[in-house]
């Protein structure tokens, strides 16, 4: 079955470009388009896409609020949201991640990266590219904890190894990279990641990365 994709962007030319790229892939199907967040909500209900490719800045309703409604408790389907950002303009990408987005991608990303990101998100994983994660969180460094605040009580639920894994997730490392860094198997890493998400009540790796920075466990600019 093809992955059903909804394109949400207020620029028709961009939607056309994305459609051309995605429709060249046998396992992807563009089922609709929307020019703002309100249209996106209607299309999600009507078309039941697997992945929504979501712009941030749009008229009537922005991508943050649309993401919150699509992925929230009252959601109408299984759609996952992949946020598009231009970095120099978008100030609300972290808010979109908090709202429930499964990842983010630069609008000028290569076609292959866009296609792979959609496949990753559709599979239930998070699109967490290290370079983008670092630039985003460094951009918001002034709004995040300094690391001097008390460690949240929830963090004490984790074992020492789970804390190590959470720090590496926050740096954007994949399971394979974490396994190599800690000299354990990839299966073991998956188990640790699962425990971290369950204990902290987080949905996926994106929320885990944001939590690590917001809690002060990891500070922007740190290795």
Automatic annotation (TrEMBL):
Residues annotated as domain Response regulatory: 4-122
PROSITE patterns: HTH_LUXR_1, HTH_LUXR_2, RESPONSE_REGULATORY
Keyword DNA-binding included in the entry's annotation: yes
GO biological process: phosphorelay signal transduction system; regulation of DNA-templated transcription
InterPro entries: CheY-like_superfamily, NreC/VraR/RcsB-like_REC, Sig_transdc_resp-reg_C-effctor, Sig_transdc_resp-reg_receiver, Tscrpt_reg_LuxR_C, WalR-like
HTH luxR-type domain ranges (all copies): 151-216
SMART domains on file: HTH_LUXR, REC
Residues recorded with modification 4-aspartylphosphate: 55
Pfam families for this protein: GerE, Response_reg
Keywords recorded for this protein, A-Z: DNA-binding, Phosphoprotein, Transcription, Transcription regulation
SUPFAM superfamilies: C-terminal effector domain of the bipartite response regulators, CheY-like
GO molecular function, one term: DNA binding
The keyword Secreted belongs to this UniProt entry's keyword annotation: no
PANTHER family from the UniProt entry: TRANSCRIPTIONAL REGULATORY PROTEIN NARL-RELATED, TWO-COMPONENT RESPONSE REGULATOR
Record-given protein name: DNA-binding response regulator
Organism: Streptomyces diacarni
Lineage: Bacteria, Bacillati, Actinomycetota, Actinomycetes, Kitasatosporales
